[in-house]
Amino acid sequence: MRKLIAFILAIVLALSLTACGGDSLKVGDTVQFGELDWLVLAVEGDKALLLSKDLLEMRRYHDVYTWITWEDSDIRQYLNGEFYNGFSAEEKGWIVETSLLTGGYSEDSKSSIDTTDNNIPVGQQ
Questions:
Q1: The pTM is what?
Q2: Which domain holds residue 99?
Q3: Measured distance CA(101)–CA(75) in Å, rounded
Q4: Angle ∠(12,103,61) on CA atoms, nearest 5
């Protein structure tokens, strides 16, 4: 029987500070954004890095057991599609697009892959 890898979904978002408290926001604070509670991990300039306080759901990294890059994974498609689209238009305006440089995860590739994402799964930042 092949081993299935489950991806426990805790999400990191980079947000504009105006979205969640402005200049008074500090590392360790809890803020509400998109009907979820988030822990402030970092504040830099006019941006904050947030981690969901609760486990949001459990999903596989990819539905088919195969070599797959982050760029082509089902979980990335979900995060930048269905999950991201669960936020209002105003909330989406506060989410900062993030460029992620990931190592090559295919059988024949060791090169890095640069993607632009709206959400960052834990372990990818």
A1: 0.73
A2: 6-121
A3: 16
A4: 55
Quickly count: other Cβ atoms within 10 Å of residue 85's Cβ: 10
Question: Tens of pLDDT along 77-118?
Answer: 988 899 889 989 988 888 888 877 776 554 555 566 778 887
Q: Which residue has the higher pLDDT, 32 or 124?
A: 32
The count of other CB atoms within 10 Å of the CB of residue 35 is: 9
Query: H/E element holding 116?
Result: strand 113-117
User: Which token pair is 60?
Assistant: 């596989």
List Cβ neighbours of 85 (8 Å cut-off, separation of 6 or more): none
Question: Do the domain assignments include residue 61?
Answer: yes
C-alpha dihedral (92, 38, 86, 5), degrees to nearest 10: 120
Number of domains in the chain: 1
